[in-house]
Amino acid sequence: MFRTEPWSKWNMKNEYKIVMLAVAFFVFVCVSDALLDNLLFHERTFWESLVTNVPHHDIYHRSLTTISFLIFGLIAANILAKQKQVEEKLRREAEINLALAELYVPMLSGAKSVGEIAQIVLEKAKSLTNSEHGYVSEIDPETEDNVAHTLTAMLDECTLQAEARIVFPCGSEGNYPGLLGHCLNSREAFFTNSPASHFASRGTPQGHLKIQRFLSVPVFLGDHLVGQIALANPPRDYTEQDLDVIKRLAVFYALAIQNKRAEKALMESEKRFRTLFENASDAIYLIDIEGDNPGKIVAANNAAAEMHDYTIDEILQMNIQDLDTLESAKLVKERCRLLLEGKRIKDEAVHRRKDGSIFPIEINATLLELNNHKYGFAIDRDITERKIAERKIIEQNEFLNGLLEAVTHPFYVVDATDYSIVMANSATRKAFPSDSKTCYGITHHRNSPCDSTELPCPLEVMKKTKNL
Q1: Across residues 5-24, what is the average pLDDT?
Q2: pTM of the model
Q3: Residue 388 pLDDT more than 70?
Q4: Higher pLDDT, 454 or 294
Q5: Cys-Cys link to 288, which of 177, 264, 296, 438 (CB 3.0-4.6 A)?
Q6: Contact between residue 100 and residue 249 where contact means Cβ atoms under 8 Å apart
Q7: How far apart (Å, rounded) are the C-alpha atoms in residues 42 and 37?
Q8: So what's the pLDDT on residue 277?
Q9: How many helices (H) and strands (E) does the chain have?
């Protein structure tokens, strides 16, 4: 023909070059015809023959003229055919882009489920490939079964309901059966226009529609298999262009699956947090620390309200300073500043109930950033019982020290694990004036426990014999 290079390297400039050559050839024929007419018959001048270009002597010249017109016509037809192909390619690309653009709306709205998006993908895939049947599925992340969210009626004896889901189970070795599972096993897209002869084909069940042509594309998130788009029975053979189109649809479907799984994970995470938040026995607050009202309570749990005898609605109208005593309230701004610097706060404060009674709390607070705004996430624990217990221990120690001081001879208590003196009366300090903190240091001026067989360490004897 008129070109030898591949179509990918061919451009319209080549066609125009050939047209110019054809025009030049046509002019050459006209000029040569005029010359022969002038030279042979001398009845016309050269210019007359060139203008009229009507030879009188030989059909050969007319043939050359006809051939030049034929060449010109063929080239023109070829150009028109190429232009039509380009226009068809552009129309096809516009159709694909429109279909992909229409998928953005349900994907970004968040209102559609994966099943509903799968139905939209299936309709677009069928339309773009002229397929009569198909399904769009998702791999269950827990069981790895292939779950068809939508499936056209391929069974003559069964009409599937719109909400019906068909499950193609994953085998014990991680493979999926038959022709439908081939792309999932190979992890590669393919099509066949002769399914019965395909090596993965296992036939079709009784009552199942005969599969005449089949196309299947796996759906990936990174390297992870998450779904499948399968189509069947267009009125023509599938082509590589069909496969490329569905691959592009698969990318959009993968993003939809990713978004929905992320939304589900976020909802589950929020549900778990909300459960912990509401059922925690400690008071939990989310406090604004960088707004116009530092210390403003923007969230609180039931324990926070009950601890102060307020309702949740009342707590949310307050600043954390409103719950503090006057002395504790003075430290709120400083704590907000420390949180903004990224420091963690562990401190004690005194809070006031609605009736005016006060109680001690332990504060654990850290910085939390949400939507580019900084908050203090604080957990307050009522430590009233701890303070009571600590006071009792102090009182008991004071009483014991009083008894020890009443004893006139040396009396001290030794920790059996390291021989350190944990308690001693004044008589001990007078009898053994030493800076040592161990029993062997103050009584024997030694640097190590007594180990003589004649005078063994009484503490060691007691530990071995369990007797005093």
Answers
A1: 53
A2: 0.54
A3: yes
A4: 294
A5: 296
A6: yes
A7: 7
A8: 82
A9: 14, 13
The stretch 425-450 carries a mean pLDDT of: 80
Entry field: residues in the chain: 468
Query: Measured between alpha carbons, how far is residue 351 from residues 40, 312, 322, 339, 356 in Å?
Result: 127, 17, 9, 20, 9
Return d(Cα 310, Cα 350) in angstroms, integer: 17
Task: Decide: residue 232, CB within 10 A, 0-12 exposed, 13-18 middle, 19+ buried.
Answer: buried
CATH superfamily of 280-382: PAS domain (3.30.450.20)
Q: Which residues make Cβ contacts (< 8 Å) with residue 362, sequence separation at least 6? A: 346, 347, 348, 380, 381, 383
| Tokens 């799968």 belong to residue | 118
Least confident of 74-83, 189-198, 234-243, 421-430: 74-83
Q: pLDDT, tens digit, for every residue of 314-353?
A: 999 999 999 999 888 888 888 999 999 989 999 999 999 9
The answer to whether the CB of 265 falls within 8 A of the CB of 288 is: no
Tell me how far apart the alpha carbons of residues 149 and 135 are, in angstroms, rounded to a whole number: 8
